[in-house]
């Protein structure tokens, strides 16, 4: 009854109890008792009409005069709260002056905004003080994949720079859709070609393998109506690196594996009573390989990625619903694993691979 009344009062506020009862087909006395018992959701005025109590909008600010990577992006979310879990009806993202968002954070941001819109929350991104980043987002195709229900301030670009200039930069592969029903060969080839142009031909097979496995991973576990996407950017800072992101809004690695772990992976299942069970499972997937919902040999596992990553000095970051795992590869092996827990909710799997090419 709660959701039916909320939906009705959202569309038609200021109704009396008998009118609400008639619209939802319930007994008048039962509806009035329910309304009075749920004072945290409904308020009655002097004319005995009911309306929803609208929670205040949540504002999330990205600080200015700095680069925003995935760590600082997550810190801004945690400071404000988890927008997908909050009772607010509106989420307002504000970019302060000279806030420069890196590709890994932009991918998480894009996925989060689309998920908020899909949940019916009014979502606003305010670039009024940060036009430079708005132009950058336009160039890499952020707005091409942003849900139309998301409000962009001061205005959403009318013509996509990503579509106009696609393929013209050797340092960029614009956001491209990952289609779970296809092999996505064109997108994999674009990512591989750009990577080779910015690194070395010796890495072509390895890069193609890694990008292919990341993108196939979306097909294996997405199960979401929201599209997945991938992109690449070359950065020439104090340490040159190529950053590649692949994101989806699906079930996530752990949720996909969970129903079959007991049958196919008994050693992992033996840990199921531990508080960090999900983190242990995903870490095993990334470091051991050959772990999938079908047993070994199919599906999730990142077996090839684990093998090929040893050819690079690289960092692999895997963001799940409420935690992330970062693996640092040096000299062909994983030298460091860093786990961040209690992150604000972002559904799905969000992969970032940083290849250091200096």
Secondary structure elements and their pairing?
Blueprint: H1 2-11, E1 15-16, H2 17-24, H3 28-37, E2 42-44, E3 49-52, E4 58-62, E5 66-68, H4 70-80, E6 90-95, E7 99-101, H5 103-118, E8 122-126, H6 131-140, E9 151-153, H7 161-165, E10 172-178, H8 185-198, H9 204-221, E11 228-235, E12 241-248, H10 253-264, H11 266-269, H12 277-288, H13 303-309, E13 313-319, E14 324-330, E15 333-340, E16 349-356
Parallel strand pairs: 4-6, 5-7, 6-8, 8-9
Antiparallel strand pairs: 1-3, 2-3, 10-11, 11-12, 12-16, 13-14, 13-16, 14-15
Helix pairs in contact: 2-3, 4-5, 8-9, 9-13
Shape estimate: globular
The CATH class of the largest domain, by name, is: Alpha Beta
Number of helices: 13
Would you tell me the overall average pLDDT?
90
CATH topology of the largest domain: Heat Shock Protein 90
Low-confidence stretches: none
Distance between the termini: 61 Å
CATH superfamily of the largest domain: Histidine kinase-like ATPase, C-terminal domain
Order of helices and strands: HEHHEEEEHEEHEHEHEHHEEHHHHEEEE
Tell me the number of structural domains: 3
Largest sheet report:
7 strands, antiparallel
Q: Bin the strand percentage.
A: 15-25%
The strands making up the biggest β-sheet line up spatially as 10-11-12-16-13-14-15
Derived structural class: alpha/beta
CATH architecture of the largest domain: 2-Layer Sandwich
Count of DSSP strands: 16
Radius of gyration: 23 Å
- Percent of residues in helices comes to 25-40%
